[in-house]
Amino acid sequence: MLHNHTPPTIRAPFANYAHGIEIPEGHRMLVCSGQLGASTDGSVPEDVEAQAEICFANIAEILRSADMAVSDIVRLNAYVVDRSCLAGYMRARDRFIGSHIAASTLMIVSGFSRPEFKVEVEAMAAARTAS
């Protein structure tokens, strides 16, 4: 069981995330590289929300390959190229994460390796080790 820490002595989070996640002893970690919004055929949608959907679908596949689930995510780091990308990213994120609470950071950056990319998402997950 992961423990979320959002003390009442500091400002509440701006969205559906925790200020801290404690990973108890006996868990294994998975760290995902940043995922970009490129489909398996190499195409990149113009829309940031569609790109974010691909990022999260990739993360779901990486989690599955480690026998983990969205509920094992402890942290998401996301990078977008403009404030106008925030709403589309957040809609995709909220659909992906659902009611699960993880630590989260969202940053605006000047760009990525190719100009058509508008969002990149990293994830970290922790799951209890088999007994």
Automatic annotation (TrEMBL):
| A single cellular component GO annotation | cytosol
> Superkingdom, according to UniProt?
Bacteria
Alphabetical list of Pfam families matching this protein: Ribonuc_L-PSP
InterPro entries registered for this protein in UniProt: RutC-like_sf (IPR035959), YjgF/YER057c/UK114 (IPR006175)
Question: One GO molecular-function annotation for this sequence?
Answer: deaminase activity
Q: Which family does it belong to?
A: Belongs to the RutC family.
| Record's protein name | Enamine deaminase RidA (YjgF/YER057c/UK114 family)
